[in-house]
Amino acid sequence: MHKHHIHIVGCVPRSGTTLMTELMITCFDIDGYTEHEHSIFKEFTNCSDVLCTKNPNDIKRVAYPLSINPELYVIYMLRDPRDAIASRSHKNNRADKKIWGNLADWKAHHAIAEKLENEPNFITIKYEDLVSHPDSVQALLEQKMPFLKRKALFSEYHLQAKPSDKSDAALGGLRPISPVSIGNWRKNKPYIKAQIEKYGDITDTLIRLDYESDSSWLSELEGIEPDNQDESIKQKSAFRRWKEKNITMKRRQLFYRLSQSRRYGKTIALIRNALRKL
């Protein structure tokens, strides 16, 4: 059992979850963490005072854990949908850096986040705030999670961080926090236009989230030829979707509940982790 568990999720991949994770484990006294992504339902065998894990797509899975575990805190990384879906992977610094997001996923995931926004242990952080005012975001997190003990300022994390190889690849290398990536969607206007044509206008959402003040931004897409060839979609069969919702998810929820047992939780974690290695 862990005294406190912080789990970091995102609106889509490339929303700042890796950066937030590295900031947390570098700048706060956190004694439990994993190298890179870790499912909310995957047990962590070592007991910690503060455990910090992350998985961007777990926004789809955190509602149940939040409802039964008062020591779970979820940090939701929100990013301008245009930048989030057009952000390309830094992995291997290849010329054909892959786009990981699409507007359908962003809309679906943010709808889940909006339903959770009144949960006291669900904390929304805008990526844009984090990279523009990192120390203010750090102070907010300390207010929301008073058990955190600061070791360094977020703005100085690059001086002390030692990210894993996977995290370093996702970050594109260790460097000072900077807002330079805000607005990068303008380098991918054909993709943005194609996504809007396919999944619908997002102007009202942008205004509500203070990313735009009106619809004038759409003028930047006038005359742009839509190009959707970079869209990444993993289609699941109807049976697989049904199985995941009605069987797999319920099994994961059951084992999560059992893993929270003070008497049996650690034993269950050890057994399940041993079985995964068979």
Walk me through this protein's architecture:
The chain is α/β, with parallel strands linked by helices. It folds into two domains: 178 residues, Rossmann fold (3-Layer(aba) Sandwich); 39 residues. The protein contains eleven helices and five strands; from the N terminus they run E-H-E-E-H-E-H-H-E-H-H-H-H-H-H-H. The longest helix is centred in the C-terminal third of the chain and has 22 residues. The model has no long low-confidence stretch (mean pLDDT 89).
Quote the CATH topology of the largest domain: Rossmann fold
Strand content: 5-15%
Name of the CATH first level of the largest domain: Alpha Beta
Helix content: 40-55%
C-alpha geometry: globular
Give the tally of structural domains.
2
State mean pLDDT (0 to 100 scale): 89
Total helical segments:
11
In the predicted model, the low-confidence regions spanning at least 5 consecutive residues are: none
Q: CATH H-level name of the largest domain... which superfamily?
A: P-loop containing nucleotide triphosphate hydrolases
Instruction: Return the CATH architecture of the largest domain.
Output: 3-Layer(aba) Sandwich
Instruction: Give the termini distance in whole angstroms.
Output: 24 Å
Largest sheet properties = 5 strands, parallel
Radius of gyration: 19 Å
Q: Which H/E pattern describes the elements? A: EHEEHEHHEHHHHHHH
> If strands are numbered along the chain, what order do they take across the biggest sheet?
2-3-1-4-5
Structural class from helices and strands?
alpha/beta
Count the E strands.
5
